[in-house]
Fold this sequence. Notes:
The structure is a homodimer. Chain A is built from 11 helices and 10 strands.
Amino acid sequence: MSLALNQWTTRRWSVAEAVDGCVRHGLEAVGLWREKVAEQGLAQSVKLVREAGLRVSSLCRGGFLTAGGLPGEDGRRAFAQALESNRRAIDEAAELSAACLVMVVGGLPGAQPGEPLPAAGFSRDLAGARERVAEALAELAPYAGERGVKLALEPLHPIYCPDRAVLSTLGQALDLSLAHPEEQVGVVVDTFHVWWDPRLFEDVARAGRRIASYQVCDYLHPLPADVLLGRGMMGDGVIDFTPITRAVRAAGYTGDVEVEIFNAEIWAADPDEVVATMKTRYEELVLATG
Amino acid sequence: MSLALNQWTTRRWSVAEAVDGCVRHGLEAVGLWREKVAEQGLAQSVKLVREAGLRVSSLCRGGFLTAGGLPGEDGRRAFAQALESNRRAIDEAAELSAACLVMVVGGLPGAQPGEPLPAAGFSRDLAGARERVAEALAELAPYAGERGVKLALEPLHPIYCPDRAVLSTLGQALDLSLAHPEEQVGVVVDTFHVWWDPRLFEDVARAGRRIASYQVCDYLHPLPADVLLGRGMMGDGVIDFTPITRAVRAAGYTGDVEVEIFNAEIWAADPDEVVATMKTRYEELVLATG
Lengths: 290, 290
């Protein structure tokens, strides 16, 4: 396992700055975000990571596949748009030779991430939303496979079920992945999202080589008012990383370990200091599996 | 199934006022809280519910069994105190002929409900905390059985795992209950806590007659800054009650359906209006199972 910087941890850094930062701090891999890649330019981003000799541990993110659950023409149009957007994300992941494209599958149909529920054009059909995800994957997995891209289904903490991901547990993501070849669809184990799950260790073992990405950060308590920003540096929250890392390793995962932190204080700090702290905490708390 | 008022929904009401309110609104059962019973007096509370002809659908709450996970003498003392407090709760439930004693099992050892993590005297050992709950249940279940009280294990939404309940899914609660006779230990299905769970319907069916209490309220989105108060009146949030009620009924549950809402606006409103709204929404959204 090797430590990687997910560029959202040092959010103010461009792709060029994140690549420089990784090299400066001796990291071998970087997780990129589509918005940042678009700002840098895709071709330039590819050139930067190749010349720096970095692996792209993930591209974040595809997904948001559930709006097709809205009735009628609105639903059909939203589903087609989601598929098209995801095909572009797959193309970009292929260009970047990213180890996977992280998929945040979307919440209840019509709910917008981080926004209050809309008064109309919203569906409470959670089971239906989950079916839409399976349908979209059936379209996207072969497309990804043809381009050598692995889709990595990310279960999100149930607090994000209304608006960001109706995939709420590792077991659920794993079950969904099994309909597709291992090289096309895998799962993400992100400690923030899964630390509480009583079936975690059983499902990590069951996932085995389906684990496409291992992401680490801590779960803060209490959460801040904007729950999206409840991710903390390892050691600042409630998670015991040791047994989780041990389980992921025992399942056969040998890829990069991304640190992905959404946190207003960390975003305000000097990115070089953040990366230095990240390296220290990773050695002390994530790698130290006894 | 019959609608019941959990008295925390009309928090400003004493036991006497809640009993009067239930009678006035034609409800047959009330869920009581230990604090309120203590204020009214246990004997007087028993007298009030009996004379009104009400069932006590639950007593809230026992639990907080995990502090025994702290090291050394602190842990031993905390464990003994938790057992003693729960024996008193069981005694009260027996006096009130409550259908069950709701158990909120407690969070990580040393974490206090709703408080920031303490700097010291805190444990991240989640698996160990879950073992302490099983150990405490082994002590308490026979004591409850001798007094005709059923302990109802309540899985709480994973957002409460750090500080309130290391029981996070219905399946986990059910598995824990199976070590004990059905009349001693059951589970709570509370829509707020379990609506997101991809295994919900499978586990409700598996629970069958272990379901000791069905509680309903909605899940608000976004949650308020104090996540404890994210419960809403049915219809105000993201939950589709129809399939859940149908599943609970199909599992064989024939008990009372408590509405339990922690919500600052609802607590500030006229309790009689809250109960009237509760009745209407219950008929429209919870009972209407198609």
